[in-house]
Amino acid sequence: MAQQSRNKGASAPISFHPSASLDQAIAAHRSGNLLEAERAYTSVLKGSKTHPVALHMLGLLHAQRGNLADAEPLLKKAARVDAGNPDVVFNYANVLRALDKTDDALAWFAKAIALSPDFADAHLNRGAILMARQELHGAIAEFDRAIAIAPSSAAFANRGSAFRQLGQLDEALGSYQRAVALAPSNPQLHFVLSEVLGQMGRHDEAIGALETTVALNKAFPFALSKLVDARRKWADWRDFEREQAGLDEAVESGVAVDPFMFLHASSSPARQLTCAKTFVAEVAPDRGAARPRTPSPVSRLRIGYLSADFRNHATANLMAGVFEAHDRERFAVSAMSYGPDDRSAMRRRMEAAFERFEDVSHLADEDVVKLIRQLDIEVLVDLGGFTAGARPKILAHRAAPIQVNYLGFAGTMGASYIDYIMADRIVIPEAEQKHYAEKVIYLPDSYQATDARRSLANVPARSEVGLRDDAFVYCAFNRTSKITPVLFDVWMRLLAETAGSVLWLLDGDPIARENLKREAVARGIAAERIVFAPQVAADAHLARHQLADLYLDTLPYNAHTAASDALWAGLPVVTCLGTAFAGRVAASILNAVGLPELVTQSLNDYESLALRIAHDSELRSALKSKLVSQRTTSPLFDTARMTRHIEKAFDEMWRRHCAGEAPASFAV
């Protein structure tokens, strides 16, 4: 938010009368006729190579065009010729900053301040550089100096950002509020205010700030998707259809929308691709880096896994067994962890599963790229995509010769620097490949890895978890944001038609809990028939599935890890086949566990099948017996088999690369 340049044009203090050519140049410049202005400035400089105003203005013109390499020598010369002019010195410093010559930029901003002690923008831009360098206390001091001279929304907003990075949220909030007060019509200020309010747990106020952002500019990047996401996490469906239409319209018109949130809202692979491409252009554009290293066959292929989730997290729960089962004679396997160390048993297991476990959470993206290249990682597998905490800029620098999207993000990343996505023929039918920027690797069973080492803790009594012994328990242990009003209609009809039944949901937020109860009552179902399961340890959560009778899947975003958990615990899952990757995962894993009969093609069929299973105890028992008998022999829970398939995929990727062949879709 720091001011980038100061151009006073002909009104800048000068000690002589400009020539007619200079007047013409400045007039053309002001009118936007840059070509004519450039000719006129050049003409002036032919007559006087050190004309300070012409040097200054021509340098600014090149900077305005983005030609920083041409702007720098002109402004450098202007700053030396007109060394007492703080505006010239300031603008030269700005170009140095834009060229990432930050040490030089800081020095020249200091010279501008020495010439003009009340130069607030110079303090502001020094602070912005220091903040980018993580010298946060120094940055705050500069912002305070700028505010003391001339309070501005930019200075307060930057001050808020520095305090937020220090974790001092009360100070950050106060600064953002002052910024908003100074510029109430600036949507960006309301957006950053919403971010810090959300961090502080003041969600009502955060939503209010997002509503203001969207009202001021409905195309403001990510504001609409964050607003819709916040409401759906609370099961606030009052404007569900209008918001859905707004999201689709935003994506189609090129507005930046959070792609992970959009996977939960969209059934269109084509729109998901558009969304991902817009996100990449906004957040992590291709840096144009060449593929590192000259490829050659190796005795052990060096694999790197990149993730924020090497901890007690769904990704680790699925992948732990694969990491441990890799053939160490043929593969050198490393982890690049940029997420938190939660000091859990799973984190310790993750650290032991790899030959190298690199905690890079403290490193800048560029430094992570350097480390990956130093380790000569040949295939880099991104397990996060655009999920929470992801750092796609690492991949945008082409950290490894081959980069793969796998598991965590159930859709395309829309990026030229992601070569492959690992999938199966159910989640990405061949006809849908056109909606993926990556080439598709088809694994033979399900794309989803699982860990066959997971144990089932002692099963509690139903009374211990708030369930009646005689109740029929429909279970849907999914995030609230996956539940839609249309799906909830189906669930409530199932409760109405199944005597003594309850719906068992995860308890995530008190506001969501009350909203879901209210929605049930509005559909004629007593609130007490919605039972909420509190957060518990992973093994206890897995075990309690065994108290349920039938798992109900969600759409357009299925249960993924949650469906695997249910099946591993012996609980049948009924799903409806969606049209996009995220809505076809449960079908994939049900086929891999030998229960394709639980995959339906419409919500009407989904409802009918769930009701039939609920009313037919023999069918229910047969399904559970089949699941138990096939659980240990099916491909879904054969971790070693899955690992060999993934390794074959790595081999083929590397073979193609060494042969000089471009990435192409293939089947294992």
Task: Return Rg in Å.
Answer: 29 Å
Sheet with most strands: 8 strands, parallel
- Beta-sheet strand percentage? 5-15%
Q: What average pLDDT do the residues reach?
A: 94
Distinct helical segment count = 28
Shape type: globular
Share of helix among residues? Answer: 40-55%
First CA to last CA: what distance?
A: 49 Å
Number of strands: 14
Strand order of the largest sheet: 3-2-1-4-5-6-7-14
Quick tags:
668 residues, alpha/beta, eight-stranded parallel beta sheet, six-stranded parallel beta sheet, 28 helices, 14 strands, 51% helix
Short description:
The protein has 668 residues and is α/β, with parallel strands linked by helices. Helix content is 51%, strand content 9%.
Give structural notes.
It is a single chain. Helix 4 packs antiparallel against helix 5. The strands form 2 sheets. The chain has an 8-stranded parallel β-sheet, with helices on one face. The protein is globular. With 668 residues, the chain is of the alpha/beta class. The relative contact order is 0.07. It contains 28 helices and 14 strands. The two termini are 49 Å apart. The longest helix is centred in the C-terminal third of the chain and has 20 residues, at 639-658. Strand 4 (379-382), helix 20 (392-396) and strand 5 form a beta-alpha-beta unit.
What order do the helices and strands come in, and which of them pair?
Blueprint: H1 20-31, H2 34-47, H3 52-65, H4 68-81, H5 86-98, H6 102-115, H7 120-132, H8 136-149, H9 153-165, H10 169-182, H11 187-199, H12 203-216, H13 223-233, H14 240-252, H15 259-265, H16 269-283, E1 301-307, H17 314-325, E2 331-337, H18 345-353, E3 356-359, H19 365-374, E4 379-382, H20 392-396, E5 402-405, E6 420-423, E7 439-442, E8 472-476, H21 485-497, E9 501-506, H22 510-522, E10 530-533, H23 538-544, E11 550-552, H24 561-568, E12 573-576, H25 585-592, E13 599-600, H26 603-615, H27 617-631, H28 639-658, E14 666-667
Parallel strand pairs: 1-2, 1-4, 2-3, 4-5, 5-6, 6-7, 7-14, 8-9, 8-11, 9-10, 11-12, 12-13
Helix pairs in contact: 1-2, 2-3, 3-4, 4-5, 5-6, 6-7, 7-8, 7-9, 8-9, 9-10, 10-11, 11-12, 12-13, 13-14, 17-18, 17-28, 21-26
